[in-house]
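Run log, item B.
One chain of 345 residues. Sequence copied directly from the ordering sheet:
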Amino acid sequence: MYDIAIYIGRFEPVHNGHMALLQRALASARRVIVVMGSAWQARSPKNPFTCHERADMMLGALTGPDRARVQMLPMRDYYDEAVWVRAVRKGVAQMAPEAARIGLVGHFKDATSSYLSAFPGWELINVDRQGRIDATAIRDAYFGATPGTVRAGLDDLATQMPDSTLGFLERFAQTAHYPALQEEWRMLRGYREAWSAAPYPPVFVTVDAVVRCQNQVLLIRRAHAPGKGQRAVPGGFIEQRETVWQSCLRELAEETHCTLAEARMRAALQSVAVFDHPDRSQRGRTITHAHYFDLGDTPFPPVRADDDAMQVEWVPVEKLAALEEEFFEDHFHMLDHFLGITGSV
């Protein structure tokens, strides 16, 4: 019997396969810590539900005694496995400092399961895959329905989910979030279908501009799906005859009308970082080159929204942490990389 069993996942949404592994964890340890991934992410077709909503689905499927033995550990994605592993270990140590023997419940499904090998000292409780269902199939059926046909749309999958999940999905379909996520889901499906016949999956290259002035950062709100209405740093796709530097300045000017002289921008450039996590974008494999500029205490350059931006604003650095759930894809983590918002783990 382990002191603690750890179960890691995103649970978007919770289904019976998840619950089977959770029951194995409960049978293997006195207490279970569920590491709830993708915490504080903005809603998207891949991450439509908040950490608290997913926790309620899972706990609602347990009996009272079992529910009392389960603790939730919200965990942001980080898009950096080494940092993420340290954060998970730190969170578990804080919740269970006395635990001497720790088990990690899971099964090797595909490349996304490699994290199970990243925790030496924790004994793997290897469990065969439970059933054939996965959360992606549930989300596709769900977003392909309508508020009035959710139960019918999920009929073929209903036996694969606990009642707590089905009830939540029906209630959620009556909120304003549901049609907004459907719009994003349809856009992303069309986007992927456009290149589905390519001999190899494409790799997209983008650029982003993190511009700091008087300890404030220039942000936009996206005008279109994906991420419509979400906060982001200015950026976009590189064009055929551009360098990443040229593309960065062009995108910055198109979205914010920040058109400082190139020499001024060269002088303000502090660093360039590549963000290339395979899961950073739902549009497909997308690698971005983020340029960090610091204009110091000089006057704010004039800006206004245009092109793919519905709004542009200067936001104080100290306010960014409270806005984490409003950011598109990994843009909060991009800012964190340059500005140290969350502190090192």
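Observations after the first pass:
- The chain has two domains: 2-177, 203-339.
- Residues 9 and 37 are 6 Å apart (CA to CA).
Flagged for discussion on Thursday.
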